[in-house]
Amino acid sequence: MKAAVLHRPGAPLTVEDVELDAPGPGEVTLRVLAAGVCHSDLHYMNGDLNVRLPAVLGHEGTGVVERVGEGVTRVRPGDTVITLWRPRCGDCEFCTTGRPALCSLGRVQAASGGLLDGTSRLNLNGEKLHHLMGVSCFAEQCVVSERSVLAIDPDVPPEIAAITGCAVVTGAGAALNVMKDATGEGVVVIGAGGVGLSAVMGLRLVGADPIVAVDTVDAKLEKALELGATHAVNVRTHSLVEELTRISPRPMAWSLDAVGAPQTLAQAVEVVGTGGTAVAVGLGKVGATAAVPVNPLVQQEKRLIGSLYGSANTPVDIPKLVELFKSGRLPLDKLLGERYELSAVNEAYAALAQGATGRAVIVPGPKL
C-alpha cells in the first residue's frame, strides 16, 4: 500500500510502498477513506513533539473495516468507523469514570510507537516502521486496535467523519464539556484553525455571547464569523485588550487557547476577568512554558485548566456530534478546507503552515 512516512524531523514526508501485516488479536484492518490535516502532525514533522521514527503519520481518520483479528467484538467487516487517537480500554480509572481521553493505554502507544501490545504492523524494505498514536492513517490502509475505532453511520460523508474524530471533538467537545456554563457569557477563542473553529461552533450551541475569535489571518476570522463567532479580532493589526473593551463592557468570563504557544496561553489568562476561566486545548513544543502573573491569578481567582481531546467521553460524545451535524445544527461541511490526494500530503502541510482556512483532508483513494 501507499503510505506517508516521516524519516526524520524537518524532512518532508515521503509517500512510499509500505507493507502492512495482518491484524493481530483485538485489531482490525481499515481501508482509509479520508484523513484530516491536523497541526499535531506538523508538530511531529518539525520535531516540536516527539515520535518514534521512522513512522507513518496521520491520526484523524475514517475508514471501512476490511478484516478483523481474533477476538474482535466491537466492529465487523463492512463497518464504517472513525479512528480515535486515544484508545478506550474500558477498565482503567479514567475509562471507568467517563474520561477515556486519559486512558492509560494511550501512553503505551506513545512510548512504543506501536499498537497496544507495543509492536508494529508496518514494514518498509524489511525495516519496522512505527505507528502514530496507534492510527497512522496517512495511508491507503491501516491496522488499529478495535479499542481505537468507533462505528458510525456510513451515510456520513467521509471527510466529515474524519475531522470529527479529532478537530471537532477537541474543539466542540471542550465547549460542550468544559465550557457548558458559558451560556450568556463572553468567550475569547484564540486561534481559528480547525480546533478553534470547532470550539466556536460548540460555543454557539452552548449559547455563549459574545464569542470573539482571535487570529492573525483575515480569511480564518471570516470563517469564524460564518460559523458562529459574533466578533473577530486580527491581533496583527489591533490590540486585543482594546477591542474586547469596545466589544463588551463586561470582562470576558471564558477564553480558549487553541494555539498552544506560550504567548497565546498567557494571553488567554490575561483576557478573562475576575473569576474567569482560561481553557488550554492547543499543544506546544515539548518543554514549552508560559508566564502567568501570579497575583492576578490569585487576587482575581482566575482559573487555568487543560482539556485533552475535548475532555470527551468519546463513545458517547462523537455520535452526538455526528447527529448534530446530520440535524443541521453543527455545520461541519462549512468547516472543511481543501482536499488533497495522498501524493500531495506535503502540499497540504505547507498550506497549513501558511495559514490555510478550514480543515483540509487527505483522500488516499479516488477523490470523494
From TrEMBL:
Its cofactor is Zn(2+). Keywords: Metal-binding, NAD, Oxidoreductase, Zinc. It holds the Pfam family ADH_N. The keyword Oxidoreductase applies. It comes from the Bacteria. Residues 10-362 form the Enoyl reductase (ER) domain. InterPro entries: ADH-like_C, ADH-like_N, ADH_Zn_CS, ER, GroES-like_sf, NAD(P)-bd_dom_sf. Belongs to the zinc-containing alcohol dehydrogenase family. This is Alcohol dehydrogenase catalytic domain-containing protein. It comes from Streptomyces asiaticus subsp. ignotus.
